[in-house]
Design a protein that fits this description.
- The complex is a heterodimer.
- Chain A is of the alpha/beta class.
- Chain A has 13 helices and 11 strands.
- A 9-stranded mixed β-sheet of chain A has the order 3-2-4-7-1-8-11-10-9, sandwiched between helices. In chain A, strands 5-6 form a two-stranded antiparallel ribbon.
- In chain A, strand 2, helix 2 and strand 3 form a beta-alpha-beta unit.
- In chain A, helix 7 packs across helix 10.
- Chain B is mainly β.
- Chain B is 0% helix and 39% strand.
- Chain B has a 5-stranded mixed β-barrel with strand order 1-2-3-7-4.
- Classes of the chains: A alpha/beta, B mainly beta.
- Chains A and B meet through helix 6 and strand 5 of A and strand 1, strand 2 and strand 3 of B.
Chain lengths: 380, 90
């Protein structure tokens, strides 16, 4: 690949609304808050924004609350030349469809869980007849993503001898990182004994393998690279890989083919953790260890801790800091790390950050339209 | 695409035991397995495990198809131990 579209684009702004288990604030207001924060962070004003997209849709999950871009544009008085549901803002900016594009993801999954008296099954109230992948899941009572993805971890344990104790170090390490994140949901120390003693949800996945549903909105501004002089602290998109349903091994191949950097050049990794074992699979497929080696890679937690050779999910991840969903929390942290604005949890000298939003499934499904791997570096 | 008949035994490719009640009235725990059949590479059927000891069932165990009636009278894809082995093992 010689024409790297993402090199014509920078991430100029990141905005985060309040994050809480349940917030009274409506999703539309949270989204406004996040967008306004992102635009300010970019050093821009609303008058500069001419592109707008929700993230990846995926609105069948109970509590997914992306407002329609038309409503956001009307509410904020935006004058747009490009808008989309599930659009790729990087490509839109690179192609000249707009110059400064806002992307947002909004969730009210925490409130939804409270209203249902517990975390609700997926698909039950959002489709009249089970279709697509849900035709497999719903009739047999596989009403949670925990069921679908537990199958993948069972298989990994069978093939490679990976243990629950090894997997537990993901949750334990990320909890320690969350203690350094003022926006995190859970900050009390978590021990491996706590992890092993927690209720089983869908074996081998226990309570602390599951992320925590929250109410929140996260927004980004993507700007054209020729505008960097106007921007407060833009971050370069070194390479972005995308895949549709083929999973993260394909994402990784695509991403690494677009850069001369290698896994050993990465200073900090934010890996999607809807469930803890996604981190293991991500480490393997993105080339940080061999297939089947991820259990040993994270065991003991030292390697993936702040100060270790590959600090991972330094914001606490979705397991402890909240299910912002679809990798937006991971991408935000990657930007903050490369900018060097993470305070106590800053990885010293971080110049290359990887945000991996990538899934694979022995069930042959991805829960997202597009898996992406994004490699960020300093602009200057 | 066409429907193709498969013959047992099926082999458990992966499994999970669900412990959480996702909707009122759901009986837990229950086992779920992905099952492969000889001559059908890459095709995996998801179903309930029925008449298995959930503490000892494991990947590689052989199963027979045992569709059962579920909520609302709908038939639920299910698997039972392969009959040639009393314990469902080979």
């Amino acid at each position: 690949v010689t024409d790297i579209a993402e090199h014509r684009v920078v991430i100029s702004g990141v905005g985060q609304s309040a994050v809480g288990r349940q917030l009274e604030t409506p999703g539309l207001q949270l989204t406004h808050d996040a967008i306004l924060a992102a635009v300010e962070d970019a050093g821009l004003s609303l008058a500069d924004i001419d592109g707008l997209s929700s993230t990846f849709g995926l609105n069948y999950t109970p509590g997914a609350s992306d407002p329609d871009p038309g409503d956001i544009a009307a509410g904020l008085g935006l004058d747009l030349t490009w808008s989309a549901n599930e659009g790729n803002a990087v490509h839109a900016v690179a192609a000249g469809a707009c110059r400064h594009a806002v992307v947002y993801r909004t969730v009210k999954e925490g409130s939804k869980a409270r209203a249902a008296g517990g975390r609700p099954g997926v698909g039950m109230d959002t489709m009249a007849v089970a279709s697509g992948r849900f035709a497999r899941y719903l009739p047999v009572g596989a009403l949670s993503a925990a069921n679908w993805f537990a199958l993948d971890m069972s298989r990994h344990m069978h093939l490679y001898g990976t243990t629950r104790e090894q997997l537990g170090w993901v949750a334990v390490t990320q909890r320690a990182h969350a203690a350094l994140n003022p926006l995190a949901i859970y900050t009390d120390p978590l021990t491996l004994e706590d992890y092993m003693g927690a209720p089983m949800i869908s074996s081998p996945l226990g309570l602390f393998d599951c992320d925590v549903p929250v109410d929140a909105s996260t927004a980004f501004v993507y700007s054209h690279a020729d505008a960097v002089a106007d921007l407060r602290d833009p971050v370069r998109i070194e390479a972005q890989g995308s895949a549709n349903r083929e999973g993260q091994a394909r994402v990784a191949t695509d991403m690494w083919s677009r850069t001369s950097l290698k896994p050993s050049d990465v200073d900090v990794v934010q890996m999607y953790d809807g469930f803890s074992h996604f981190v293991l699979f991500g480490l393997e497929d993105l080339g940080f260890c061999g297939q089947g080696e991820s259990g040993a890679f994270v065991e003991g937690g030292k390697r993936i801790s702040l100060g270790g050779e590959l600090p991972l999910n330094t914001w606490g991840g979705q397991l402890s800091a909240g299910r912002l969903h679809l990798g937006v929390g991971h991408l935000a942290e990657a930007v903050h790390q490369v900018r060097g604005e993470c305070g106590e949890r800053q990885v010293i000298g971080a110049e290359v950050a990887l945000s991996g939003f990538v899934l694979r499934g022995s069930t042959g499904t991805l829960v997202t339209k597009a898996g992406t791997g994004t490699l960020l570096t300093k602009v200057r | 695409m066409d429907h193709v008949a498969v013959a047992g035994p099926g082999v458990i490719y992966s499994l999970t035991v669900n412990h959480k009640q996702w909707v009122p009235g759901m009986e837990v725990p229950f086992g779920l397995a992905e099952v492969e059949f000889l001559g059908c590479p890459g095709v995996r059927i998801l179903g309930r495990l029925r008449d298995f000891d959930l503490a000892s069932v494991q990947i590689g165990d052989q199963v027979d198809v045992g569709v059962e009636e579920g909520p609302g009278g709908f038939m639920v894809p299910s698997f039972v131990p392969w009959p040639t082995s009393a314990e469902g093992k080979v």
